[in-house]
């Protein structure tokens, strides 16, 4: 059952919003800092020690060989491989449209200036073990990097119980253009990517989700390398009008609730009848799910519903929440899209379940969580490029405009700046 909040109870909504914020505790930050410093100093020796400690595996060589990769890929279900190939085409096509071009502007007196768009040299993708394996996340991280032109795409993932790599993860990596794979997970993997070891060269940027220790490690190494985001628990918000199918609506809410006990499922609707029927469906559908306990904990602690006077009011609440996934299960959803200001990804209409975006549609499923869609974006090609400006002035241009440069520099009491222009006049 979804906990109901009154449309007029702004305090309850604020309490709900604050409850979703995941602060990394000081204890975890201290522990992770120790791991980072240890791996930075002792490199492979420390990384192997932590892999033995946390994963129970003695790794002789972190690097996955081509022979290991071949053997892992052979174990994959052909139907899964076919689905992944089709998904890859959609994801690649969507992200190719994001490619930005360099530009140049020509002005008077021989002045020209512009901007170059350049791919990062390398990136590292973290692929978690834990509760589930997510080969789809390999595609969502590696394909935009590949489209951007990143030459070295590295993947790290915890070794399985036999010391190998999950076959589906291996297949996804090969399909998506990953160039190196290392069997290492946790904070020690982030340390290796950030600082480098004898066998794992460092990268320029780290992307991909992980547990709280991985999130803490990414936060702490930011500045030495770039990161995508600090991901919190998954969340979905469904806006449903009176025409929304309660069976569809409940199924979509449960699709995110099964991720994690802290995942949130939110329903905003204009119909009391829809809310009642959705709650009945949630009870019915969750009872037969394999992850019933996770789903029930998620709905109990973070499941929320508000009955609003209008769809516009629903969208206003949604903008305040800034959900990771937003479904507009309304008639004529495109007419509402321009009202949406804050959302990681928007799914339009009664038939567009969020799962399509997670796997197949082409849009990226690495999205801002915990309200950060107010100021951040989905992972895409822009995450794997950098820009560099350039500028050219002729002697004639400096003689024409130098006095303005001098005036501005002198006003800021930076005489050497002013003099650099003055000596040219």
Task: Report on this structure.
This protein is α/β, with parallel strands linked by helices. It has helices at residues 10-19, 26-42, 44-55, 66-74, 78-96, 135-148, 167-176, 186-195, 212-221, 246-257, 272-286, 292-302, 311-321, 334-337, 354-359, 395-411, 415-422, and strands at 3-4, 103-106, 112-119, 122-126, 152-157, 180-183, 205-207, 226-227, 235-240, 264-269, 303-307, 325-329, 345-348, 385-392. A hairpin with a 5-residue loop joins strand 2 and strand 3 (112-119). Helix 2 (26-42) packs across helix 9 and helix 5 (78-96) runs parallel beside helix 7. The radius of gyration is 25 Å and the shape is globular.
Quick summary of this structure?
The protein is α/β, with parallel strands linked by helices and 425 residues long.
């Amino acid at each position: 059952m979804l906990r109901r909040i009154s449309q007029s109870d702004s305090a309850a909504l604020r309490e709900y919003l604050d409850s979703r914020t995941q602060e990394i505790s000081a204890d975890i930050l201290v522990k992770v800092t120790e791991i980072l410093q240890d791996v930075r100093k002792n490199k492979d020796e420390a990384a192997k020690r932590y892999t033995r400690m946390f994963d129970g595996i003695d790794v002789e060589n972190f690097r996955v060989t081509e022979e290991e990769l071949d053997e892992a890929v052979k174990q994959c279900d052909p139907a899964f491989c076919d689905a992944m190939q089709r998904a890859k085409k959609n994801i690649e096509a969507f992200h190719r449209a994001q490619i930005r071009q360099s530009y140049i502007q020509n002005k008077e007196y021989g002045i020209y200036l512009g901007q170059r768009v350049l791919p990062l040299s390398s990136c590292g993708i973290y692929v978690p073990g834990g509760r589930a394996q997510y080969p789809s996340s390999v595609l969502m991280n590696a394909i935009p990097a590949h489209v951007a032109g990143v030459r070295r795409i590295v993947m790290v993932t915890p070794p399985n119980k036999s010391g190998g790599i999950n076959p589906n993860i291996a297949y996804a990596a090969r399909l998506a253009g990953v160039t190196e794979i290392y069997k290492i997970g946790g904070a020690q993997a982030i340390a290796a990517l950030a600082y480098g070891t004898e066998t794992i060269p460092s990268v320029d940027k780290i992307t991909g989700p992980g547990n709280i220790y991985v999130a803490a490690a990414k936060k702490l190494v930011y500045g030495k390398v770039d990161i995508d985001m600090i991901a919190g628990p998954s969340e979905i918000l469904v806006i449903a009008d009176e025409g929304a199918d309660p069976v569809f609506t409940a199924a979509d809410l449960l699709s995110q609730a099964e991720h994690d006990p802290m995942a949130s499922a939110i329903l905003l609707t204009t119909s009391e009848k829809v809310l009642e029927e959705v709650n009945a469906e949630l009870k019915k559908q969750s009872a037969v799910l394999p992850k019933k306990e996770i789903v029930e904990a998620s709905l109990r602690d973070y499941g929320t519903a508000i009955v609003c006077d209008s769809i516009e009011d629903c969208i206003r609440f949604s903008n305040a929440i800034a959900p990771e996934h937003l479904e507009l299960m309304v008639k004529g959803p495109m007419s509402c899209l321009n009202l949406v200001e804050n959302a990681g990804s928007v799914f339009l209409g009664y038939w567009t379940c969020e799962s399509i975006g997670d796997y197949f549609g082409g849009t990226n499923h690495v999205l801002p969580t915990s309200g950060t869609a107010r100021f951040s974006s989905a992972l895409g090609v822009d995450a794997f490029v950098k820009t560099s400006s350039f500028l050219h002035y002729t002697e004639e241009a400096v003689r024409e405009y130098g006095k303005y440069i001098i005036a501005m520099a002198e006003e800021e009491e930076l005489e050497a700046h002013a003099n650099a222009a003055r000596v040219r006049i």
